[in-house]
């Protein structure tokens, strides 16, 4: 949602352009998955193939279908592929899929173009769903400019800093309760090599607007920078943006993981799990894997808020959420599925069958008051809830900006812009060019986008 009283991005009726732009998405942490499609009376759901979604697929027939009689056919694809397919089907209003996983990035564009079914009436009538239990930042991020709710979160996340408590203790180091990036850089230097093969920190370097650009942009925000001013002036070569980018690139080059230009969420998660890094700044969703049964580092990790410099907080905000296609002729059944998949009941089911660390959390206040969840996720529960609650997509930095968004710029062109800028930054991390050269090229790319909105 744009800032009140500020110019909103003009879509200019570019429905096809929006769909094409949204198809150019970033890489994520999804792995390989299968697909299935069924017509007839079955509900057709298109979703990303991350572990939480795969778990949902396994539980649906035995529980949801048994309780409601509604059959569900899933199409499960990697993140790049699923966004492409969703954009195509929803933009054409083909109605092949009734429900799809969308994020708070796409939702404003999908809603504006009339591709989504409003959910306010369903949520109001379904008192057991308890809409007020959904964390406020997520409710707001899934509400469009027209004030209507267009999706329900399956899980939510912010970002925070994870670190090896045992390594810090052995080195005589103390992690501040609210660290600054300068403190983190010093700690990375002091823990680099603390154990054989261990680096001081892991930071994403993999190209993609959802990979290196996500954490980097939070550093830019808290160091006083912005991609665009309120009037759409690109600021990628401004001193603040340069300072943050140089800091990030230098930190990962000097004390970051091996192969940083090819390292994204999945690679950093593996490095942290395998004891190859002392710290990791990334998604709060990673904590569940670190604390899962069988994890080599379970119980050894500490969690603190995203590092800051000039802002009070800097964690990002992201959610995979369920959207109903406007053209679907099965909206009532679709809501029943969404209500179940995002319910307290479903979280209880996952907790009982797979363990509470696997619960798709980060969306409900009640989750963080649940004693069963806290017993298993107590190490990171409070920090996660606070990070999500403090996330402010409207004002994530020190200066006004033209759109909402913390780790992204809320325009469809950002899928392409962010990914192309990411390629420049990753090349700097690899040592193939300077930060100044990377940002000079990036500024030109941003200027082309700015022309569309001035």
Automatic annotation (TrEMBL):
What InterPro entries would the database entry show? Bact_solute-bd_prot1, SBP
Q: Which UniProt keywords apply?
A: Signal
Recorded superkingdom? Bacteria
Q: Name one Pfam family in it.
A: SBP_bac_1
Give yes or no: UniProt keyword Signal: yes
Segment forming the signal sequence: 1-32
What's the protein here called? Various polyols ABC transporter, substrate-binding protein
